[in-house]
Amino acid sequence: MRPNENGELVYSHYSMEQFAGTLTAIPFRVDRTVVDQTGLDGAFDFRLKIADNAAEMKHGLERGDGPSAFEVLGQVGLKLRPRKDEVPVLVIDSADRVPTEN
After folding, report:
1. Domain assignment of residue 11, given as a range
2. How confident is the model at residue 47 (pLDDT cuts 50, 70, 90)?
3. What are the backbone dihedrals phi and psi of residue 46, each rounded to the nearest 5 degrees, phi first?
């Protein structure tokens, strides 16, 4: 994913599973796990309009007040639906730092 000068985020060769994984990060910040249930296989190229230009997009991202994922996903015919489902979780009880030689 990369921003462009037109205020868009450009996704090149993204699967729906990969894209779903990006929705919990900036700029979308969906506060739940997003699971792809589109049934769409393959990789896609698409653009999401975030602002009118690059400067507005940058300021919106810095302030954290850009459009919501719910607003933006409609541009490519997708929508988020909240539901309860089982999601695999990895729990790490502890971790020790192992020194390495230089």
Report:
1. 2-76
2. very high
3. -155, 165
